[in-house]
Design goal:
The chain is mainly α and about 230 residues long. The chain has one domain. Helices cover about 55% and strands about 0% of the residues.
Length: about 230
């Protein structure tokens, strides 16, 4: 993994460690509200509504081409390395796909237009779509978006698109697995977050060490208890 990849990973990891993970995850309240609405309209089961799209992490909203672009983009934001899960490992694509079919449905046009503008920019700049670029070229494209230097973006703007993808990548990495990302608690293990434990002692709360007394569990495990 390059120094560029490592610095990007550490930026996102530090952002979460500084307080982004709160309670059982960082999913916006809207996602929780969507889950409550689904519970009212569907039979009660052990599995959460919309917990997955399909094995490739697409099908709820994203088509194959858009899913491939989002997967490549988020992996460059949170690249994997030996022993360190990245966006693909954590199922970030699945999280985004499900969110766009549910709580983030109002962002569907935002994503459609943003991905189309990204594709056009990459073709004009590098003669290839984003997914076919080298990692170095992909990083250059992402930097241009972040700095607002990518041309051809109207709505969303380049920076708006970058900021949204980065936010959703962090959510998919570190939210409760109930919402389709953070597969096998990959993100929580990365930052030493213990998950939705039933109780923490005063000593646990004051300790600066990682909580290791019990296994990492999520909200879905809690709801299965009588």
């Amino acid at each position: 993994m390059s120094e560029h990849d490592a610095s990007r990973r550490e930026f996102l990891r530090a952002a979460v460690g500084a307080g982004t993970v709160a309670g059982a995850g960082i999913v916006p309240e809207a996602l929780a509200q969507t889950r409550e609405q689904d519970k009212k309209s569907t039979p009660e089961t052990n599995a959460p509504p919309h917990s997955q799209s399909n094995g490739e992490g697409l099908g709820a909203f994203l088509n194959r081409d858009d899913a491939a672009t989002v997967a490549a983009f988020t992996e460059r934001l949170m690249p994997g390395a030996p022993g360190k899960p990245g966006a693909r490992d954590a199922g970030v694509l699945n999280y985004i796909d499900l969110a766009l079919a549910g709580a983030y449905a109002d962002l569907q046009d935002f994503y459609r237009r943003g991905l189309a503008q990204l594709d056009q920019y990459c073709r004009e700049t590098h003669r290839e779509p984003f997914v076919h670029l080298s990692t170095g070229q992909q990083d250059a494209v992402i930097t241009a978006l972040e700095e607002g230097k990518a041309t051809g973006f109207t709505w969303p703007t380049a920076q708006e698109f970058f900021n949204t993808l980065r936010t959703h990548t962090m959510e998919g990495m570190f939210a409760d697995p109930l919402y389709g990302g953070n597969k096998d608690f990959a993100g929580w293990r990365l930052v030493g977050f213990p998950g939705a434990q039933p109780i923490f002692t005063r000593t646990d709360m004051q300790s600066k060490q990682a909580f290791i007394r019990a296994p990492i569990i999520g909200l879905q495990a809690q709801t299965k208890k009588p």
